[in-house]
Amino acid sequence: MKQGNIRDTGDCRAISGVLARIGDKWSVLIVSRLGARPMRFNELKREIGGISQRMLTLTLRGLERDGLVTRTIFPTIPPRVDYELTALGRSLLEPVTGLSAWALKHIARIEAARAKFDAAASKSVRKFAPAVSARQARVEA
């Protein structure tokens, strides 16, 4: 498959399904944190910050379902549960790290582009707002 040239609809569906799992912000953060070492649920929650318990649970289940994370339960009181990347999950570290590095390198340019776009969009809305109001006034009269 050549870069930028996906022709098969089946490939597109398969790729989009995988990207939906690994492309969300919580999965990327969990994979990057587990890349250092196995962690317990509350350790992950503290490390990630801002993730709810429910979202962490759902994301870990999805990563486990996709074979990227293993969940090991230790028979202690209370039970201890560790999460760890599988070999497949470890293979995801390189692209995740590369994407993170790219984002950090280009964040200033992205923020500048966003500010420029938002300013232009704001001017455009102000330019057309009075015309819409005048039209509405004629319709209402």
- How many strands, what sense, and barrel or not for the largest sheet? 3 strands, antiparallel
Q: Please bin the fraction of helical residues.
A: 55-70%
CATH homologous superfamily - what is it? Winged helix-like DNA-binding domain superfamily/Winged helix DNA-binding domain
Low-confidence stretches: none
In one word, what is the shape?
extended
> Structural class of the secondary structure composition?
mainly alpha
Give the CATH architecture.
Answer: Orthogonal Bundle
How many strand elements?
Answer: 3
Please, how many helices?
6
The overall pLDDT, averaged over residues, is 85
Distance between the termini: 60 Å
CATH top level assignment: Mainly Alpha
- SSE string: HHEHHEEHH
| Strand percent estimate | 5-15%
Can you list the strand order of the major beta sheet? 1-3-2
Q: Work out the radius of gyration.
A: 23 Å
CATH topology call: Arc Repressor Mutant, subunit A
* Total domain units: 1
